[in-house]
Design goal:
Elements: H1 2-76
């Protein structure tokens, strides 16, 4: 009987060790995925910032063009 108990405990310990190993691999995979997502987030923020800068530049150019058109209009008169 004690031998059977030791075998069962051994099996349980082995199963727990396998589960721990599996969970560590899963944790590592999730951490890699998180790192990749964080990098994508940084790139996205950079693109958004560049887009906003381009929109501001576009607005300034539109305003400048409008002023030039107005000047041209006055010259034609």
């Amino acid at each position: 009987m004690p031998h059977n108990l030791i075998d069962r405990l051994h099996d349980k310990v082995k199963e727990a060790a396998q589960q721990i190993n599996h969970l560590r691999k899963e944790r590592d995979r999730i951490l890699e995925e998180l790192e990749m997502i964080q990098e994508e987030n940084k790139k996205s923020r950079k693109v958004i910032h560049e887009h906003q800068s381009l929109l501001q530049e576009r607005q300034k150019l539109q305003e400048k063009l409008e002023r030039l058109y107005q000047k041209l209009d006055r010259i034609k008169i």
